[in-house]
Write a structure and sequence with these properties.
Layout lengths: L1 H23 L22 E2 L6 E2 L7 E5 H6 L15 E4 L8 E4 L15 E5 L2 E3 L12 E8 L13 E7 L7 E9 L3 E11 L4 E12 L4 E2 L10 E15 L2 E12 L7 E4 L8 H4 L14 E2 L8 E14 L4 E19 L8 E20 L5 E22 L24 E23 L4 E25 L4 E6 L10 E19 L5 E11 L2 E2 L12 E2 L2 E14 L4 E20 L6 E20 L5 E16 L1 E2 L2 E2 L11 E14 L2 E12 L17 E12 L4 E8 L7 E7 L4 E6 L4 E9 L1
Parallel strand pairs: 6-9, 13-17
Antiparallel strand pairs: 1-2, 3-8, 4-5, 6-7, 8-9, 10-11, 10-41, 11-12, 12-14, 14-15, 15-18, 16-40, 18-19, 19-20, 20-21, 21-22, 22-23, 23-24, 23-25, 25-26, 26-29, 27-28, 29-30, 30-31, 31-32, 32-35, 33-34, 35-36, 36-37, 37-38, 38-41, 39-40
Length: 761
């Protein structure tokens, strides 16, 4: 607590410095600003639907950052990874590659990135929960807004979560015929196109078609002859939406979508250890380990280069029925299908120390049904029921030293597999997972007076799961089966096993709001978050590895304020919170046997605070900043034989800060010239629970810019843009693979720049 208080008090100077910078219009560190969703003109109110109602952001007693669709486009935020630079206490890692974000919010994250896992930060696309990685679509195009809710969610959302929720809300059709088209060119031979068109199909029916398409060469330079550069871009997404309003009280919105990513996969920066990548194994068989001699940090010599492939399909029907002026029934029905293949040269070298392949396909059906009231004062409520069923068929292959000819006969096959040392061996698993979640929930608020509102929510959840047809095998480098390792039958290669869980949970929230005479909001709340049990899909070597982790929970205490002053020219929102975090799910590796199990870290605690400010000193200038503070500590836990007590949680920098401005440099009858500068600062952070110093990411700053012109009628626009303009080198993830002779890193994107032209019609 003392550490957190000193951190909070010490941050006052940083806040004052930011305020001074606002006054001088010279921000020192800038970032894409978290501005209003639904903000058609200056002075209009920010509207969000975070609590399943259309409300002013300043009236919602929850810590929220809202980003408008126009802002996302202008600031070149075309990937969920980019959100971390705009939201206090949000971090994103990319262990599965671009487009498969792993969110950490207020220090709540996950350490098992298997394809079957559902993270503690829920992602929603138009109110549809997307859980496992194969189901995540390419979603950042033609959006109305993005809402990031910090803190446990459950009494209003489809899935219980311990960390928060991120809502991607697409633009819905309207009856006005209009469209837009944007074309971009950039470095790394980047070219992009995106746009939308909509029209009325009848008196009560409208349609909207939106798309995005982008390609770029890889920026991770591969120096092996004939091998392509890595970290390329090759993707598209399409969304077709229909709006039908058969009466004034009834509305249907049908959204059909598909997306495809098929780029040359990401590369791994494998930093060799003292004995080189390979840890001396190659020397035993007359070869040599690898030391990355003569390579730059964004250069690689990778022999295993393949395309990642990720295909998704989705259909969602949202129905709204105004039963009366004060009662609305909402139904959200959705079906999703996805297929994902991720090949990885995990050692980042021309050797085959460790190569992996992750493959999976999944489908889910979900139904959310709720009744909401909107009475003037007194009691209001939302009553709902939710059901989700998800099926995943997935598997992973791990190949170790598959380029070593142990027998020296000129062929590498099953005869070369040295099982005790995993040389010239491949371990592969395969399984089918089914999860069902059913819940009923209620959220109520009661206006005691014009200024005081009491709030409460309760949710009952029943979760069931089965991992069936599970088997793991030891194979030769040429895929000849040698033995079943799970379920452990060395003779019957078709033998399988299974695991199950069935849990129920009651979670909820209570709180109180107070409106001041100046219409500012003060609030306090307690909420309990819950994340369901999970199967270990990293079981390869022993039958006992196939286990089930218990649910994790968070007891969250928060107080906050939302205020506006100087005739609403300045908006200042903030919150302070404390989390009691129990049973965090984590992947444990036995240092003696290499057996992997999914365990629970018994207890951790998190102190934190956030502050966001938006100012309009004069017409044509918007200045924004956000500050996040975290003090995390594991209080009881052990992993891989190491006691964790006193360690920090991963993806939880002590300080993260963002600031930025958008300035109309010149405005006259011919058009507007604009300048935007934005960036974010993050202090030191770990990527794993053991807090290994050599894997730490030190503090870094990312700066982005754009300079543009729009015609006075807003029809045409052109912009020069740059992201990470100072080419900062930083990591998005790290894993200790010292047993194989290397440290494994995902690298953040380098400097990118380009030109965009757009037209509205």
């Amino acid at each position: 607590m003392k550490t957190f208080l000193s951190m909070l008090l010490g941050s006052a100077g940083l806040v004052c410095l930011a305020s001074s910078a606002f006054a001088q219009v010279v921000p020192t560190v800038a970032l894409s600003p978290p501005v209003a969703a639904d903000e058609p003109s200056e002075g209009s109110e920010i509207l969000v639907t975070a609590l399943r109602r259309n409300e002013r952001l300043q009236d919602v007693p929850v810590s929220i950052t809202a980003l408008s669709g126009d802002q996302l486009a202008e600031q070149r935020m075309d990937s969920p990874n980019d959100l971390a630079g705009s939201v206090p206490n949000l971090q994103v890692t990319t262990s599965g590659g671009e487009g498969l974000p792993i969110f950490a919010l207020r220090g709540i994250s996950m350490s098992d990135f298997s394809l079957n896992q559902q993270g503690p930060i829920a992602t929603y696309y138009d109110e549809v929960y997307k859980g496992s990685f194969p189901l995540l679509p390419l979603g950042l195009f033609d959006l109305e807004r993005v809402e990031v809710l910090r803190g446990p969610q459950g009494t209003l959302y489809g899935k219980n979560t311990t960390g928060g929720a991120i809502n991607f809300i697409s633009r819905k059709p309207s009856y006005e015929t209009q469209g837009d088209l944007s074309l971009s060119l950039g470095n790394y031979d980047r070219y992009e196109a995106s746009g939308a068109v909509q029209t009325a199909l009848g008196e009560n029916v409208a349609a909207r078609l939106a798309f995005t398409f982008s390609r770029a060469d890889g920026w991770f330079k591969n120096l092996l002859p004939g091998k392509p550069d890595m970290n390329a871009t090759r993707q598209y997404g399409v969304r077709l939406s229909f709006l039908a309003e058969p009466s004034d009280d009834l509305e249907f919105i049908l959204r059909l979508s598909t997306s495809l990513q098929n780029p040359v996969n990401y590369g791994i920066f494998g930093r060799p250890g003292p004995d080189g990548t390979g840890a001396g194994v190659y020397e035993v068989f007359g070869g040599s380990s690898y030391f990355r001699t003569g390579l730059g940090k964004r250069e690689i010599e990778s022999d295993f280069v393949a395309r990642r492939r990720h295909r998704t399909y989705g259909a969602a029907l949202t129905s709204n029925w105004n039963v009366s002026d004060a009662l609305t029934v909402t139904s959200v029905t959705a079906y999703d299908y996805g297929k994902l293949y991720i090949p990885e040269d995990a050692d980042g070298s021309p050797l085959q120390v460790v190569n992996t392949e992750n493959r999976g396909r999944g489908e889910q059906f979900s139904q959310d049904l709720r009744l909401a009231s909107d009475y003037d004062g007194g009691l209001n409520f939302i009553l709902g029921a939710y059901y989700n069923k998800e099926k995943i068929h997935a598997g992973t292959s791990l190949g170790f030293f598959t380029d070593i000819d142990v027998t020296g006969d000129g062929a590498i096959n099953a005869d070369d597999c040295v099982q005790d040392f995993t040389v010239s061996c491949v371990y592969r698993n395969d399984y089918r997972q089914t999860k069902e979640s059913a819940a009923v929930y209620a959220d109520v608020n009661y206006a005691v007076s014009g200024r005081v509102t009491l709030r409460g929510g309760l949710r009952y959840t029943k979760d069931k799961g089965k991992a069936g047809d599970y088997k793991a095998q030891l194979l030769g480098a040429e895929d000849t089966p040698i033995a079943n390792t799970i379920p452990g039958d060395p003779v019957d290669f078709d033998a399988t096993t299974s695991a199950r869980f069935s849990k129920d949970n009651v979670s909820g929230k209570i709180g109180v709001d107070f409106k001041t005479a100046a219409d500012d909001l003060l609030y306090a709340s307690f909420s309990r978050g819950y994340r369901a049990s999970a199967f270990n899909s990293q079981a390869f070597f022993f039958p006992e590895e196939l286990n089930v982790a218990d649910p994790e929970t968070v007891n969250a205490y928060e107080v906050g304020f939302k205020t506006q002053f100087l005739d609403r020219a300045v908006t200042l929102n903030g919150a302070v919170f404390y989390y009691d975090y129990k049973n965090q799910q984590a992947l444990n590796v036995d240092p003696n046997t290499l057996a992997q199990t999914l365990i629970n870290i018994p207890k951790s605690r998190i102190f934190g605070a956030e502050l966001e400010i938006m100012a309009r000193p004069f017409d044509g200038l918007k200045i924004n900043a956000g500050l996040g503070l975290l003090d995390t500590k594991i209080q009881d836990g052990e992993i891989s034989g190491v006691v964790l007590d006193g360690n920090r949680l991963p993806a939880a920098p002590t300080v993260n800060f963002n600031a930025g401005f958008d300035w109309d440099v010149m405005k006259n009858d011919s058009g507007i010239v604009t300048l935007g500068v934005g960036g974010n600062y993050s202090s030191k952070q770990y990527f794993e629970l053991i807090n290994i110093d050599r894997l730490v990411q030190k503090n870094y700053i990312i700066i982005n810019m754009q300079f543009g012109y729009r015609t006075a009628n807003d029809r045409y626009g052109v912009a020069l843009w740059g992201r990470n303009i100072f080419n900062e080198y930083y990591y998005r993830g790290a894993i200790d693979l010292s047993g194989l002779g290397l440290d494994y890193f995902h690298i953040g994107e380098p400097r990118t720049y380009g030109l965009t032209i757009d037209v509205k019609f």
